[in-house]
Each structure stands twice: as C-alpha cells, then as structure tokens.
Model the fold of this input.
Amino acid sequence: MKKGIVFSLLSLISCLELYSQCAMCKAVVESGDAEVAQGLNHGIMYLMLFPYLLIGALLYFIYKHKVKNKN
Done:
C-alpha cells in the first residue's frame, strides 16, 4: 500500500511540464504571444491544484479515521 502511494506521488512530482487548456483558451492563445500562452497555462494548472489537494486531504482523513477505529 505504501509503495503505491509513494509511486503515485513521485510520478506526479516528476512531471516537468504539463499543458492543460480548454479549447476556447487554446484558440485565443494561438493567435497571441507565447509568453501569454505560458502564463495562461500556469494559471489553469494553479486553479486545478486546489480541488485535488482538498480531495486528497479528505481521503487521507477518512483513511486515518477508519484505521483508528479498526484498532
């Protein structure tokens, strides 16, 4: 179980550069400057981060609660 968690975290951290733009954002950025495109991409990644962190924290506390009640 721990090896799977460590592997998952390492694979998420090891991603050097990710691109995540919706079709509308991509169409707007393709007609503009590359620096603007990179800034928009970073903003989208920043906004995507927090829901995943919240869900991860919730699952962690549920797991910890179940382990505590099992003993």
